[in-house]
Design brief:
The protein has 20 helices and 15 strands. It is of the alpha+beta class. The protein has two domains: 383 residues, Growth Hormone, Chain: A, CATH 1.20.1250; 225 residues, Endonuclease/exonuclease/phosphatase (Deoxyribonuclease I, Chain A). It has a six-stranded mixed β-sheet with strand order 6-7-5-4-15-14. Helix 8 packs parallel to helix 13, helix 8 crosses helix 14 and helix 9 packs across helix 10.
């Protein structure tokens, strides 16, 4: 009897480990694929083309039926798992954008196959490996991002990435061999179970856009705007971890009507987060995390029955992936409207109601402890070890940099946050004006570039969201910052022109206006309107500096408006009229620093391909 108990316990441990690691690989592949294809194709083809490519890749999950038909349960799972493992390691080694697209796309397809096949193949219609695997995987995902300072493992230093990926793949393979040694049979979830399984990909979108996204939740709550140090992301992550742990406890305690609790938490949380209710949205994020954790157990816990093939599960998950792509496309391509994630939450709620009967919904105490360690302890340690910003004397001249960081990607569209930090550190600026700053979008690999840079450079920050709540302009500073205000530019009709704005701060007695104007070459009239709005917001305060990626060349009409207001081109006056874009072989100067009541010295651009722009640096002194 004891030997049989150990065998069963070992099988559960093996299949749970197999499920957790496979899901982490799949999440990584999704982020790498969506971010790399977006960064590589943005501006090159239409958004519709990018969406069609993504739909084709995720829709290929339907072909999981082919290895299932040819190889049977164990062979098909082994085949898809091997492809997922190989693509994961290869993508970790790769540092080329197009190779990343291909390899991560292969990982998405094989991971979707693996998910469908492993969900369908059971021993005597037993439990799904994802009942334990999915909640632990999401808790581990939050822990990994907190522990790695928001940077995905695959974007760390190559040696560390390869070592971690190789170790994870070895454990993945070993646990798979142990878990799937016994014969398995295909099962069908039935109509209600199919609805529940269909909701798994939309659940992952809910995770990516709110329940597991501290940047979005902080922005919706009006937190993380500054002036402040880099701790907000970790504090909100801790709040989401409290939600995950609370959901796990609710399942362990067999809370009555726990599915109704999940749906209510999801509805209230989504209303608070996407209604952008100040402060309360942080509680809303935690409630969505409660609902997500419960849903991770409900949705795969289908009442499986023997079947001739996994067709029902494959089709249900394929439709789920189609919904995932459609809703993700609508969210990111249309600049972060609330409707797509709300629809995803609605699909999840429907799946929860259609899911398994209540007596099956239960986690063991060990699983709850592990969720707590991952989702609570790791973010808490990260928060407590976040360095405080260094304080400097604000008297005298200060060194100013403007830098479009290209969402934390280099000119070759490969993640480069560490390189960007080194470029900044080498120049030792006191104040940095940043553009294209992501704070947790799936299409930017879920990293929070501002938290990372503020932490690495020991600076405080001010953030202005311009697209949604997790993308925009920022100011980093070693010096005290005060009098923060924001201005949003008039929205242009259609989707061609992104929402834009400016953030105004006072540093060392100088009003600093940080902005990013419209990017299209033939949009001079749009930029002129944005400049007029910016100058009205400035209001004549002196001394002042206007800095940023203005997407305008010297002599343009929009820059002429700035000159008419009394500003001088500080960089040109200092003899550094040098092109700034594209970074490797710049042929135009579109990144500018203009000033009134100040002078500039030692101006220069910084030769680096850590972004697709070169940074511009100048020492600023007040004339009074």
């Amino acid at each position: 009897m004891a030997q049989e108990a150990r065998r069963v316990s070992g099988a559960i441990l093996g299949q749970t480990t197999f499920a957790v690691l496979g899901l982490l690989f799949l999440l990584t592949a999704i982020r790498t694929f969506t971010s790399t294809i977006y960064m590589s194709l943005f501006g090159q083809v239409s958004n519709d083309t990018v969406g069609a490519i993504a739909l084709a890749v995720f829709g290929a999950s339907v072909f999981a039926i082919v290895p299932a038909w040819r190889a049977g349960p164990r062979g098909a799972i082994g085949f898809s798992a091997a492809l997922l493992a190989a693509a994961t390691v290869a993508a970790a080694i790769s540092r080329n954008a197009w190779a990343d697209v291909v390899l991560s796309g292969a990982a998405v397809v094989s991971g979707a196959w693996w998910l469908a096949l492993a969900q369908s193949a059971r021993i005597h219609a037993g439990d799904s490996p994802f009942v334990l695997g999915l909640p632990l995987a999401l808790a581990a995902d939050l822990a990994l991002r907190a522990g790695m300072r928001t940077v995905p493992v695959v974007d760390l230093a190559p040696a560390l990435t390869i070592a971690l990926a190789a170790a994870a793949v070895l454990v993945f393979v070993a646990s798979g061999l142990a878990a799937f040694a016994a014969e398995r049979e295909w099962t069908s979830p039935g109509p209600r179970g199919a609805v529940a399984v269909l909701a798994v990909p939309p659940l992952l979108l809910v995770w990516e856009t709110a329940a597991g996204d501290p940047g979005q939740v902080a922005g919706s709550a009006g937190l993380g705007l500054g002036p402040e140090g880099p701790g907000t992301w970790y504090a909100v992550a801790l709040g989401l971890g409290i939600g995950l742990t609370s959901g796990a406890i609710a399942l362990t305690a067999s809370v009555p009507r726990v599915r109704l609790v999940a749906v209510a938490a999801l509805a209230i949380g989504a209303a608070l987060v996407w209604g952008q209710v100040p402060l309360a949205a942080a509680v809303g994020g935690a409630l969505m995390a409660v609902a997500t954790l419960i849903s991770t157990v409900v949705l795969p816990d289908t009442a499986a029955r023997p079947a001739r093939s996994p067709l029902t599960t494959v089709l249900a998950l394929t439709l789920g992936w189609v919904l995932f792509v459609a809703l993700a496309f609508a969210f990111y391509a249309y600049y972060g409207p609330p409707h797509p994630p709300l629809l995803a939450a609605g699909v999840v709620a429907l799946g929860v109601f259609a899911g398994a009967a209540l007596p099956r919904l239960r986690l063991g105490a060990g699983a709850v402890v592990l969720v707590g360690i991952l989702a609570l302890v790791v973010p808490m340690v990260a928060l407590l070890t976040t360095p405080a910003p260094a304080a400097f004397d604000p008297r005298g001249p200060f060194r100013l940099m403007t830098y479009n960081i290209h969402q934390g990607y280099g000119e070759g569209n490969v993640p480069s946050l560490a390189e960007i930090a080194e470029v900044i550190r080498a120049e030792q600026p006191d104040v940095i004006v940043l553009q294209e700053v992501p704070r947790g979008w799936m299409i930017a690999a879920q990293h929070d570039a501002l938290t990372y840079l503020a932490e690495q450079l020991r600076m405080s920050y001010v953030f202005e969201p311009t697209i949604g709540e997790a993308f925009g302009n920022a100011v980093l500073s070693r010096l005290p910052v005060s009098d923060v205000s924001y201005v949003s530019f008039e929205r242009q009709p259609g989707l061609l022109h992104q929402p834009r704005g400016a953030v105004l701060v006072s540093v060392a007695g100088v009003r600093v206006v940080a902005t990013h104007l419209d990017q299209y070459e033939d949009a001079g009239a749009v930029r002129e309107g944005q400049v007029r709005t910016l100058l009205r917001a400035w209001g004549g305060a002196r001394p002042a500096v206007i800095a940023g990626d203005l997407n305008a060349r010297p002599g343009s009409a929009e820059l002429g408006l700035i000159a008419e207001a009394g500003f001088r081109d500080l960089v040109a006056d200092a003899g550094a009229d040098q092109p700034t874009f594209p970074a490797s072989a710049p042929d135009r100067r579109i990144d500018h620093i203009w000033g009134i009541g100040v002078t500039g010295t030692q101006a220069h651009t910084v030769p680096s391909t850590a972004s697709d722009h070169r940074a511009v640096v100048i020492n600023v002194s007040r004339l009074d």
